[in-house]
Amino acid sequence: MSAGGHPAATGTTTALPTGGADAAGVPWPSTARRRDDGELEVGGVGVGDLAAEHGTPAYVLDEADFRARARAYRQAFEAAFEQVGAGVDVYYAGKALLTVAVARWAAQEGLRVDTASGGELAVALRAGVPGAAIGLHGNNKSDEEILAALDAGVGRIIVDSRVEIDRVAGLAAARGVVAPVMLRVTTGVHAGGHEYISTAHEDQKFGLSVTAGDDDGTSPALAALEAIVARPELELLGIHSHIGSQILDPSGFEAAARVVLRLRADLAERTGVVVEEVDLGGGYGIAYLPTDEALEPAPVARDVAEAVAAVCTELSMPLPRFSIEPGRAIVGPAGITLYTVGTVKPVTVSGSSADDETFTRLYVSVDGGMSDNIRPALYGADYHAELVGRSSDAAKVLARVVGKHCESGDIVVHEVVLPSDVRAGDLLAVAATGAYGRSMASNYNALTRPPVVAAADGASRVLVRRETVEDLLALDLG
Ligand SMILES: *Cc1c(COP(=O)(O)O)cnc(C)c1O
Questions:
Q1: Separation CA 186–CA 168 (nearest Å)
Q2: Is 406 a catalytic residue?
Q3: Is 160 in the pocket of ligand 1 (CB under 6 A)?
Q4: Cα(362) to centroid of ligand 1, in Å?
Q5: Alpha carbon 119 to chain centroid distance?
Q6: 94 C-alpha to center of ligand 1: Å?
Q7: CB 142 within 8 A of CB 167
Q8: Does residue 329 line the site of ligand 1, with CB under 6 A?
Q9: CB 197 within 8 Å of CB 379
């Protein structure tokens, strides 16, 4: 990993936990290791015991790994911003995976919690996260959500449109409070893996543009900031930008910071108001495959802190208080999904042209699929899977792991090499499914959503229980 010309991080605290003892570089959680008989364990608990106790499919979270990543991000950004003389807050982006226990872990590790709906807000509050340490996002917040945020005394509501300025101001007035708000802007900086998860380009629903301008050059973002300043029911804390997700090239963060800081200076010039805070959102990329390299927080933090300091000097502006909102980078690598193999079917694939060779692909069906991990179908996301209940000396074959849904696109892992003796009853795990797995899960085909199980110190505990068919029928009023 390039450190951008900086010396290596000193001490181990700001480094991410390294993967479990897997020489092949598989991005298992950090406490994962293979026992002598080939069985994988996480948090000191064997996958055989996890499956026996909790059933499959199951999301298994390595609590120590989650906590270590949360600390690594907080400490890396605190250290880097302390170097330039600015404060920083790290918000855990709850949409990646939010349960009461997970929100508590984040808070205990010194993170705040970012929510994007009334439901996520309720989970964070149930966890005991103080309102002041919670942010509320969303491009279409309901009145109920805004009121719930005001009543909880959230630290910030991130306003996403002009109409929302009036709505939040009106509801704050009705409650007799001043609402702390940030404005979400789009900087024109493109970053991230997939078009649907790249959010700072212009032609999408989030935020207000910094770059588009009206006749006198006033951007929608600047006009909206001025409108917020003019509302006594609103306290403008600062400016927010989230440029995308699964970002592996950190230069986008610096570019976005420059645009946001210039906007902050423009606002100061126009109104005399110097906003205190700048948030650069989340999007820090992780390793999904053994060949992937995750973004390390320390070098990114240093580069961004130095860029922020340099731009503020250049603009003769005071340093802002800075914040970031990593989600995937905290919880993604901490989670695996444990499945049981069912039908195994060799499929002969004939070449599409005379030059293409005919080959056989082994279709390995598991007891879950696109209902517990929609990312392969939604984004073409790649994952890595292995047999984890035993070792095998059988020859390796080209396999595709598929789910049990009524769609040929119900693919869990597009292409992976598995032992040829893979058979019904084998345990199979997919790595790095902690983020956007359970949180995007559905009940397609009336499958019940798997439990979230935490493993730590040789014991496992259910954080969210498995849904039952009775749960589904309870919603159906017939
Ligand atoms: C999705 C999102 C995040 C978290 O993104 P990750 O890629 O999980 O780090 C943070 N902030 C906002 C506003 C988001 O929409």
A1: 20
A2: yes
A3: no
A4: 36
A5: 17
A6: 8
A7: no
A8: yes
A9: yes
Closest CA to 401 of 383, 418, 413, 419: 413
pLDDT tens-digit profile of 340-369? 999 999 999 887 777 778 889 999 999 999
Q: 242 CB less than 6 Å from ligand 1?
A: yes
Catalytic residue among 23, 163, 395, 406: 406
Q: Tell me which residues of the chain have a pLDDT lower than 50.
A: 1-12, 21
The beta strand positions in 22-87, using DSSP E, are 33-34, 40-42, 45-46, 58-62
Q: Verify whether ligand 1 is closer than 6 Å to residue 90 (CB atom).
A: no
Give the C-alpha separation, 130 to 139, whole Å: 23
Q: Is the CB of 327 under 6 A from ligand 1?
A: yes
CA angle 446, 447, 448 (to 5 degrees): 115
Q: How far is the CA of 20 from the centre of ligand 1 (A)?
A: 26
Give the DSSP per-residue string, 357-396. PPEEEEEEEES--TTT--HHHHH-----EEE-SS---SPE
Which domains does the chain carry?
Answer: 3-62+334-475 (2.40.37.10), 87-331 (3.20.20.10)
Work out the burial of residue 316: count CB atoms within 10 Å of its CB; fewer than 13 is exposed, 13-18 middle, 19 or more buried. Answer: exposed
Nearest-atom number in ligand 1 for the CA of 327 is 8
Could you tell me the CA-to-CA distances from 150 to 135, 137, 225, 232 in Å, in that order? Answer: 11, 13, 20, 15
Distances from the Cα of 300 to the Cαs of 92, 284, 303, 346, in angstroms? 17, 9, 5, 45
Residues in the chain: 478
93-117 pLDDT, tens digit each? 999 999 999 999 999 999 999 999 9
* Distance between Cα 425 and ligand 1 center (Å): 37
Q: Are 339 and 366 in contact (CB under 8 A)?
A: yes
